[in-house]
Write a structure and sequence with these properties.
Strand order of the largest sheet of chain A: 1-2-3-6-4-5
Number of helices of chain A: 12
Largest interface: A-B, 83 and 82 residues
Low-confidence stretches of chain A: none
Mean pLDDT of chain A: 94
CATH architecture of the largest domain in chain A: Alpha-Beta Complex
Strand content of chain A: 15-25%
Largest sheet of chain A: 6 strands, mixed
Shape of chain A: globular
CATH class of the largest domain in chain A: Alpha Beta
CATH superfamily of the largest domain in chain A: PurM-like C-terminal domain
Number of domains of chain A: 2
Oligomer: homodimer
Radius of gyration of chain A: 19 Å
Number of strands of chain A: 12
Structural class of chain A: alpha+beta
Order of helices and strands of chain A: HHEEEHHEHEEEHHHEHEHHEHEE
């Protein structure tokens, strides 16, 4: 377990991975009969009661310490949509369409105006996806949260035809990796970013919204065979790309193929972040990836604004890394 | 908006009610076609896709500042079950059976051992209900949480036959109110309790578990017609009992009919809490209520350990309160 800049800032991805491994130990030995094998862990799958062909997909997420920036700038209208879109993207990886969402808002001191502004952001993003805001919890917890602080998490439930859930085994060497552009940090890397950038000066850049990739993905699926997808969140390209790939392939990306947004350039410069830190802490400009046959790549890219071929799939052997980001083709 | 002891301790129930009213404004004008009218707001209902007779019920909850007591005493094995049981009880009010649960765990500093202990509590309570622990999120958020602090929230999704969802209109004057015993504060009132009681001395009492009422309710439903139910959480008997009752009735309870656990006696004494504060901040020994026809009350009580008739339903007119807790029959 190495300690890098992100760990020094207080977020230890290695500890996170260790916790996830411990959860698997905890749950070893029992699984509900209707719980389906997960595909990369972006969203859990549960057989739809009374229906052998469809499943519910569910995911819980937060927006990380982006909430601290929102609190400091008193900008409460953006994090709700960030959260909903994050959740939508997570279950989109298994091809699910949103049904309903519930929020959890915890505050140090409850200001109804502020809470309503945050929930409005959730509601409007839900509505855009024809997703019900079915419920939620607002908790006032002085002593845990400072007076102006809050945390925001949410859970989405969606629906998917089982035949439409991507199958790892379909991915083959030679397939193309298509990337969809990120608008900024989305909901990851804020603890490090807050150490490196002044919140007041960089507030707009730091609060740039986490987009939904729902429409772009659906448009691409009309013209291309999409074999695997990944939502580039905590862990960046290096950890998220492999989550939906089989063990016998690796993902090769070339970062010359997309434009890295200025906020990341500034973060890398100020933090003197090495290659691994950059691509494991931040999305570096790619918010969502799709694996498609090379023959479909041009059509896929044409179907969604800003989409680019950012790499390809190669055969992998032994202990080779499962994802690599190169400066350019070797 | 009066300020009482709980508000002075930092939790303003009036502000909470105001926030909920604001959320309704925010969501005014749009509702998903498959979102069903809610019954008291304990759990949202959403039509099961492709099934006209069943619905999904969902609820998100936290465990409040009970997490601060767990953190101070370094007792991480209880709050997970508290949370799951809280969620189970919430959707039980609409008669739903749990399908799956997802947790949100946010920490100041991620200790995999501690996180695994908390999640183990969730898992074991899920398993007891044959409920899948389908996913979750663990977030390390320094700056928002103190190093040893954490917050824990969760979302449950269950299934219910629409014909089994209780209908307010069935409740009539003369019906009996059956109460199920609470083990302690469950997950509400901790911010005030922490002001009044020393955490180290009263640790065991304060961490007493939030029970699931699932088995007790199912046992009672076999022998009695259950017309309405309420989970006695934040807001106590005074605010939760009316949530599933029609406007034309009121709930009358006599607190001589059940034993108030010693922890509440001590809280009332130390805080010099008036009647309204007691019954709006704490459950005062009743964790869950059921409205049954008077003719079924004896059978219902016999079916569940500790169950007692705690009151009855009367006709209500004009601006009369919707729930009253008397010392004894007037």
């Amino acid at each position: 377990m190495t300690r890098d800049s992100y760990a020094a800032a207080g977020v230890d991805i290695a500890a996170g991975n260790e916790a996830v491994a411990r959860y698997k130990d905890v749950m070893h030995g029992w699984r509900h009969a209707d719980q389906l094998e997960e595909i990369g862990g972006f969203g859990g799958l549960f057989r739809l009661p009374g229906d052998s062909e469809r499943a519910l997909a569910a995911s819980t997420d937060g927006v990380g310490t982006k909430v601290l920036i929102a609190a400091e700038l008193e900008r409460y209208d953006t994090v709700g949509a960030d959260l909903v879109n994050h959740c939508v993207n997570d279950i989109l990886v298994v091809n699910a369409t949103p049904l309903f969402f519930l929020d959890y808002l915890a505050v140090g001191k409850l200001e109804p105006d502020v809470a309503a502004e945050i929930v409005r952001g959730c509601f409007e993003a839900c509505r855009k996806h024809n997703c019900a805001l079915l419920g939620g919890e607002t908790a006032e917890m002085p002593g845990l949260y400072a007076e102006k602080h809050f945390d925001l998490a949410g859970t989405i439930v969606g629906l998917v035809d089982l035949q439409d859930v991507p199958k790892r085994e379909d991915v083959q060497p030679g397939d193309a990796i298509v990337g969809l552009p990120a608008r900024g940090l989305h909901t990851n890397g804020y603890t490090l970013a807050r150490k490196l950038l002044d919140t007041k000066t960089f507030g707009d850049l730091l609060l740039a919204g986490h987009p939904s990739y729902y429409d772009a993905v659906r448009a691409m699926q009309k013209v291309a065979r999409v074999k695997a997808m990944a939502h580039i969140t905590g862990g960046g390209l290096l950890e998220n790309l492999p989550r939906t790939l089989p063990d016998n392939v690796k993902a090769i990306c070339e970062h010359s193929r997309w434009e890295v947004p200025p906020v990341f350039v500034e973060l890398v410069r100020r933090g003197n972040l090495d290659h691994k830190e950059r691509y494991r802490t931040f999305n570096m400009g790619i918010g969502y990836t799709l694996v498609v046959p090379l023959a479909d790549a041009a059509k896929a890219v044409a179907a969604a604004p800003g989409a680019k071929v950012i790499g390809w799939i190669e055969a992998r052997s032994g202990d080779e890394p499962r994802a690599i980001v190169h400066p350019s083709r070797a």
